[in-house]
């Protein structure tokens, strides 16, 4: 309680700073230059659309592709025309020379024929890669079809289609379909891998599902100026047997960690904040700071089956009373990415219990606040998946730690049970032990008196109504 007044004072001290930040231009000139250099540009998109890649273009594209690897791997790429790197969660092969890629059929996997004399490492004539960046997760890998790479100097199949841009071959198998994983396992890795190619990329999708690519169409075509996506394999849709030919290719995606673009290992030094800007640009969202309004909008991500708020109505009423306009986002609302992105983009506070819905923070305007309700025993996951990423995206972040009495686990276990008194001892036993208990096995009833403090804190973090400036 003693903290309340102090926070209020701090809020007033910050007020002049906030107003100054609104008035300052969004991007400094130096930063703008860097963005133009490291991202797509409209001019180049036009060049791409003409479909004719001249020699200069091809050389420049090769130069950009080399930036995907560094050190020894880059020397290897220059020397052998191909380099494959193995990161903890992803395997990635980059080749700056021509390839032919045959689509998967019922009897053979998608196959990349290295037709320009690329040298695989000694002892390898071919190898198999699953282009989804969760290689340590056997469940994700079962849902990701293998892609074969073969050194084929002579008997490679003839081209049915010749593309002017390098192939970016990636999978939407694995955990794709869950919004956190869509962003974390596919969209951010795609941005890391192809974001610096200035739209000179032909996306080639493995484990293709039409609804998925339709949902993220605007984002995908912000990375590629090709006329369409190409399909390498699909578990649900028949794929025409075809041989696609490319001047170069990347098989697999770069991956840096949970909702992370690590600028020290990204082409062009892009950061998580740059990813958020990229996404906003792709979806036509506003980038400016959440405007100071009389009743800021709070979007509440509603969960229904696990980690549900049993007193959600009470929480909504409280938020209204504290001064918010409240929008409750049911899970079904989030099937259309564009519409819901617009709703989140117009809000000041995104609030929810730890879970994939919080990934919608990627659509927030600068200066908005993320409020994460942390269920019992999920502190580690809350920090790794949402708290640190929110800060990296330049958002304000606060969390509400539920007390054990606010969790339904409290009624389910004896009061001295390890589940209640020492969650770490359970978490340490692995996800297959902790998941049914903490992730899937609890609902919450928030202590509204205590949660009011958190909501007030969120309100204070927002810009004041403009007339105050
Ligand atoms: C980013 O990469 C650098 C160098 O590889 C590493 O030292 C640093 O810990 C990474 N940052 C994060 C947030 O993982
Ligand atoms: C959980 O997984 C570990 C290894 O991944 C295994 O040793 C253990 O038996 C599993 N426990 C349960 C309850 O399935
Ligand atoms: C949580 O609440 C939902 C909806 O009220 C219910 O379907 C589910 O079984 C509950 N789960 C637990 C672990 O209590």
Please supply descriptive tags for the structure shown above.
pentosyltransferase activity, 18 helices, 37% helix, binds 2-acetamido-2-deoxy-beta-D-glucopyranose, single chain, elongated, 469 residues
In words, what does this structure look like?
- With 469 residues, the protein is an alpha/beta fold.
- 37% of the residues lie in helices and 16% in strands.
- It has helices at residues 3-23, 29-38, 42-49, 55-66, 71-80, 138-142, 179-194, 210-215, 217-220, 272-283, 312-322, 337-345, 379-392, 409-412, 418-421, 423-427, 431-439, 448-461, and strands at 82-86, 91-95, 99-102, 110-114, 126-129, 147-151, 161-162, 167-171, 202-206, 230-231, 243-246, 249-251, 297-301, 325-329, 349-353, 369-374, 396-401.
- It has a 6-stranded mixed β-sheet with strand order 1-2-12-8-9-10.
- α1 (3-23) packs parallel to α18 and α11 (312-322) crosses α18.
- Mean pLDDT is 87; it is low at 1-51.
- One 2-acetamido-2-deoxy-beta-D-glucopyranose binds at residues 257, 262, 264-265.
pLDDT averaged over residues: 87
Structural class label? alpha/beta
Residue share in helix: 25-40%
Parts with pLDDT < 50 across at least 5 consecutive residues: 1-51
Number of strands: 17
Shape: elongated
Give a quick precis of the structure:
This protein has 469 residues and is α/β, with parallel strands linked by helices. 37% of the residues lie in helices and 16% in strands. The site of one 2-acetamido-2-deoxy-beta-D-glucopyranose has 3 residues, from helix 17.
Topology:
Layout: H1 3-23, H2 29-38, H3 42-49, H4 55-66, H5 71-80, E1 82-86, E2 91-95, E3 99-102, E4 110-114, E5 126-129, H6 138-142, E6 147-151, E7 161-162, E8 167-171, H7 179-194, E9 202-206, H8 210-215, H9 217-220, E10 230-231, E11 243-246, E12 249-251, H10 272-283, E13 297-301, H11 312-322, E14 325-329, H12 337-345, E15 349-353, E16 369-374, H13 379-392, E17 396-401, H14 409-412, H15 418-421, H16 423-427, H17 431-439, H18 448-461
This protein binds 2-acetamido-2-deoxy-beta-D-glucopyranose (3 copies).
One 2-acetamido-2-deoxy-beta-D-glucopyranose (NAG) binds at residues 430, 432-433.
